[in-house]
Design goal:
By secondary structure, the protein is of the alpha/beta class. The chain contains 22 helices and 14 strands.
Length: 531
């Protein structure tokens, strides 16, 4: 039965609208015989009515009345048919090579060509599909915990066989009907879709719609087929958080260059995290050091990272890490440490030494500190105006990178102090700038998150307290705003022995006017960690 008739899909999809639009008169032309035939097959398949016995009755109907008739039958007769049906079904025993489905080409390059698939072929294909994608480690894996939605139509070789495999695996399945970008995005988010597939054109359409709507596609796994995946599209998909099956092999095969902006979604051979918890990932697997970590080798890595990761003087590194050595002894020790560091990171090419200076290979090594500085530089140089979506996206990216102080566990190392303070200052300034822009666009909750995270890093920055007070005031939550003010008073008094500025006190008086029952002195036991 062919339900892909375009006009038939139009009827069904507009059925609800027709039933709701009682105050409007929709003008439809007369029904054509081939369209009546499609509806006839549908109705007879559902055992609702025999249209073929009196097709002339349907030929006199307008399209609108024809759709209403079908909807009425589906609404009233279908439940009765289900109630009268037997719960058991005696499946016929037939040869596994019996024809199951038939396909025809469109005839764009000659006469249409037909092909059929047997039941045996469909079963074997479904089993092999589950075996192939079920044995994947993490990237591209398809399991019973996924939520599946095809973006490849069934007339494209059974949507590549995935619906059969999904049914066999017992996963939740979502079928969108028309492939409209807004509807696809809505279903992905509302239904929690985690696995899909389609051609590059569909991926392009999905990414464009997601960027326009500021929708995060992180966690969505997508199999691409039909044609080669363009390099630029692969980069965009990774930046959007989509897990593209075989992407690492694709990048290795065609030697794609990493994108500008240090995207953490790119499959970097080496990832170094130094903001907050320090860790090294090789092919996305954390390096385990066991009981005794190579302290001096890791110190070399951290020192290079602390000084920008590019063009760091070897003599400077040696003098800082081997101050007790004399003459060339420190340089020899550094040479041994660099060799061990290359081995630790997986190869000679991860580090470049040229003209007595050492650098990370920017095509192989990613670090959160370098990515953070690049992103903050973009934020400082671009004028986002009042575009709340762009500001929200930028703040989310910055917050995801800055998870804590730079090399927080190495506070005793004097060479780490200056970069730690520099990065902290840049984070504080970015949160203040983005919070102000989000306030200007009335994105109060997003601005609150920026100010909160700013206070976690610098609890003496009065501008963050003021921003929180303004946002809570606009949200008609003066009690929370006054808790923020009380925390400001207590912090400034305990740390600096001073009182809040006149600007902060003015905000507090204004908030008290909004809610007179609030005392100007809040009990010191009240917490504002999550006001």
């Amino acid at each position: 039965m062919d339900h892909s008739c375009p006009r038939f899909r139009d009827y069904v999809e507009t059925g609800d609208a027709l039933q709701r639009s009682t105050h409007e008169r929709v003008s439809w032309p007369a029904a054509r015989p081939e369209e009546i035939a499609v509806l006839a097959v549908v109705l007879e398949d559902l055992a609702l009515v025999s249209v073929l016995e009196s097709p002339e009755a349907f030929q006199t109907l307008s399209f609108e009345l024809l759709v209403r008739e079908v909807l009425s039958l589906l609404q009233h007769a279908w439940p009765s048919a289900l109630r009268g049906a037997s719960p058991d079904y005696d499946f016929p025993d037939f040869d596994e090579n019996t024809q199951a489905t038939t396909f025809y080409t469109t005839g764009t390059t000659g006469l249409p060509k037909g092909v059929y698939y047997s039941h045996r072929q469909l079963v074997l294909h479904s089993l092999s599909g589950l075996a192939l994608f079920g044995m994947a480690g993490t990237q591209g894996r398809f399991s019973r915990d996924d939520v599946y939605m095809p973006i490849t139509p069934m007339f494209h070789v059974h949507a590549w066989g995935f619906p059969w495999s999904a049914t066999l695996a017992g996963v939740k399945q979502v079928y969108p009907g028309r492939y409209e970008p807004a509807m696809l995005l809505k279903l992905i988010k509302s239904e929690g879709v985690t696995f899909t597939h389609g051609v590059p054109t569909i991926l392009q359409m999905l990414l464009d719609a997601a960027a326009k709507a500021n929708v995060d596609l992180k966690g969505l796994k997508m199999v691409i087929g039909g044609s080669a995946l363009p390099k630029a599209l692969a980069k965009r998909a990774l930046a959007a958080g989509i897990e593209l099956q075989y992407v690492r092999e694709l990048i290795d095969r065609y030697e794609f260059s990493p994108p500008r902006g240090f995207s953490p979604q790119w499959p970097w051979p080496v990832k170094i995290y130094a903001l907050g918890e320090f860790k090294i990932l090789l092919a996305d697997n954390a390096v385990q050091f066991g009981r005794k970590a190579p302290r001096r080798v890791l110190s070399v890595l951290k020192y290079i990272l602390a000084h920008g990761g590019n063009g760091v003087s070897l003599r400077q590194v040696a003098d800082a890490l081997w101050p007790e050595e004399e003459g060339d002894a420190s340089m020899r020790a550094l040479g041994v440490a660099l060799a061990r560091l290359r081995k630790l990171l997986g190869g000679h090419d991860v580090l470049w030494v040229n003209d007595e200076r050492v650098s990370f290979n920017g095509k192989l090594v990613w670090s959160d500190s370098q990515a953070f500085e690049s992103l903050v530089a973009d934020n400082d140089s671009q004028n986002f105006g009042l575009d709340s979506g762009t500001c929200a996206h930028m703040s989310a990216r910055i917050l995801s990178l800055y998870r804590g102080d730079f090399l927080a566990a190495d506070r005793d190392e004097p060479w780490a102090l200056r970069p730690r303070l520099r990065l902290r200052t840049r984070f504080v300034r970015s949160m203040a700038s983005l919070g102000t822009r989000l306030e200007a666009s009335a994105s109060w909750d997003l601005a609150i998150e920026c100010y909160r995270r700013g206070l976690e890093v610098d609890d003496l920055a009065e501008e963050f307290y003021q921003g929180l007070m303004r946002c809570y005031g606009m949200l008609a939550q003066p009690a929370k705003a006054m808790l923020v003010y009380d925390r400001l008073r207590q912090t400034l008094s305990a740390e600096l022995g001073v009182t809040p500025s006149s600007t902060s006190e003015g905000l507090a008086r204004k908030l008290q006017d909004q809610c007179p029952v609030i005392s100007s002195r809040i009990s010191p036991t009240q917490s504002v960690e999550n006001p």
